[in-house]
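Why do we bother with a discrete structure alphabet at all? Because it lets us treat a fold like text: something you can write down, compare, and reason about line by line. To make this less abstract, here is a complete entry for ArsR family transcriptional regulator. Read it the way you would read a sentence in a foreign language you are learning: slowly, and without expecting to understand everything at once.
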Amino acid sequence: MKTQQHQQIAELARTLGHAHRLNLLEQMAGAELAVEQLAQQCQLSVANASQHLQHLRRAGFVQTRREGKRVLYRLSAGPIAEVLAALGQLSAFNRAAIRELMSDSLSAPEQLEGISREELLERLQERSVTLLDVRPAEEFAQGHLPGAINIPFSELQQRLGELPTSQEVVAYCRGPWCVFSRDAVTALKAGGFRARHYLAGVEQWPGPLQG
């Protein structure tokens, strides 16, 4: 049952995974509008707007009613406005985290430099370092750095005991602007580990990924 629920949520998320659809929903937040009005407000062609609206209607985000020759669209019942607001808040939070990371890189670059690619490759060949992927498990399964172990950042505090204390731990995430690796290093050091970042992450790895 839980898996089925997650699949349904994933389908809803996929429907929302387009900027035009989010824009269309925002336009309908306070008004019932015809497709021509929505297309004009979102700077889309009527055909393109109609296509996106059909996706939203099939997923249950919008409802329609006919008024003469016009078809009017409105938000469906349910917490759709709250979902849009929550996504906006999450986006603002992520932007703030990126600004903080950029500020830190300017004020204390030595703290964010971490380990270089060349040193990491050398240490991996020597097997003198533990490479820790702190991305979600599904991303790890799609491809990860050779020899890495996966402990998602959300589980790190509870699973520190799975890491060897005799080696330095190098944490990595998606890329330079993913804050999980930086936060993981903070948590690792607080737990008594020697730890550094590999900030380039998966995005800039020079060789093939495992997975």
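What the structure line is telling us, in plain words: Residues 109-113 have pLDDT under 50 and may be disordered. Residues 80-107 form the longest helix (28 residues).
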